[in-house]
Amino acid sequence: MVAINPSDIAIIIIVALVLFVGSSKIPELFRSMGKALGEFKKGRMEAEMEINQMQNQPPASTYQSPQSNQQKAASPEDLEKQIKDLQKQLDEMKKQQKTQ
User: Fold this and answer.
1) Alpha-carbon distance 59 to 13, whole Å?
2) Whole-angstrom distance, CA of residue 65 vs CA of residue 93
3) Are 48 and 56 within 8 A, CB to CB?
4) CA–CA separation, 39 vs 27, rounded Å?
């Protein structure tokens, strides 16, 4: 049986690329493969950083929830006033967009 070396496989792949893809498309193909590899490395680094941050967080007993630092919930009247103000702002933005 014939043993196939990694260099033989590389030559076969290069010949197949030239035959099926064309010599003009090969640089574009490798460029897109390089971009994909770069994005993969970037994602891997972000995941590693996130894991490290999770490991460096203090234990749950000393962790304070964000809700304990916030004020009490607003009254219904305040919420209704905020909704009306936001609706007015939205209407004004729609009018400005129509005039443009």
Assistant:
1) 52
2) 36
3) no
4) 18
Q: Is residue 1 part of a domain?
A: no
In one-letter notation, the amino acid at residue 46 is: E
Q: How far apart are CA 37 and CA 29, in angstroms?
A: 12
In a domain, 49, yes or no: yes
User: What's the rounded Cα separation, in Å, for the pair 26 and 23?
Assistant: 6
The 10s digit of each residue's pLDDT in 72-91 is 567 888 888 899 999 998 88
Number of structural domains in the chain: 1
- How far is residue 18's CA from residue 66's CA, in Å, rounded to a whole number? 59
CA pair distance 57, 53, nearest whole angstrom: 6
Tokens read off for 100 = 């443009």
Chain segment 26-82, per-residue pLDDT in tens: 788 889 989 999 999 999 999 999 998 888 876 655 555 555 444 556 788 888 889
Whole domain around residue 53: which residue ranges? 23-57
